[in-house]
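Write out the 3D structure for:
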Amino acid sequence: MPAIEAWDLTKVYNGSLVAVDHISMSVGEGEIFGFLGPNGAGKTTTIKLLSTLLKPTSGHARVAGYDVVREPDRVRRSIGIVFQDPALDDQLTGRENLDFHARIYGLSRGERDRRIREVLELVGLEGEAGQLVKNYSGGMRRRLEIARGLMHYPRVLFLDEPTLGLDVQTRRAIWDYILKLNRDEGITILLTTHYMEEAEYLSDRIAIIDHGRIIVVDSPGNLRNTVGNDVITVGCGSCERLRLRLEGIDWVRKVILHDDTLEVYVREGEDKIPVIVRIAEEEDVDVTSISLRKPSLEDVYLHYTGSTIRGDGAGSSGEVKPMAGRWLRR
């Protein structure tokens, strides 16, 4: 039985604003499933529907085998959630936060003590458990929130933008903890992110979502293969003239103009570089640089949505943001 299933799941606000638009999906037991999309794409709303925090306008969903509308209490006992916004009590210690959460779920004192030790070890916070949370770093707080979400042995864990606003080193540490808990606990994880690298590093499969709709679902490798082209980046003067010439060639799949560069999508790119250079010479176009790369997840996103991913403006390292029409990784 899949851990998560949805059929035509839809959420409409005020009769006209469609936040989630007929989403259908299936997530297997023990899978890490990534929702990749910009802010406002419908990722968080989908999690709220699946976790019973919102009721769908139409459609159906089951989590851990339970219907999210007819059996909300059973769904809630089967899931853990790490929200995008912090939700810890910073006047309590790390251990006290975990203990309070476990009491809500009715764990006995012996179960609480044992589980607190287990999850603290899992996220590497054994030595800091007695400190007040207000003295924790951002990364420590995120790890504690993940630990709290695991206290009641959930079958499914929802992580909503789990590393938003964290520095590169802390983000990578969180990624390793997520992979470890997936391996050690056998837990199914659905995470949302607008970080390309995060989705690719963590996810067994990725759903690209935009404007409330799932556009495509597959493994990172298969998604890259759907683009199927090498990307030749040409720095040039008079790029427009070169673009017009290349667009008329049958082996050129796509040409994208970015101010003083062209991105040329072709197969067997190594063989096409000298041909492009020769064409530039024929068109009297000055080539200042030329490089070749294999398709990336950024190319996949652009291929399916026709646009770059919209970030949150926070400028966190690793976020893919548009700048002067080009990909820029901060």
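Residues 168-185 form the longest helix (18 residues).
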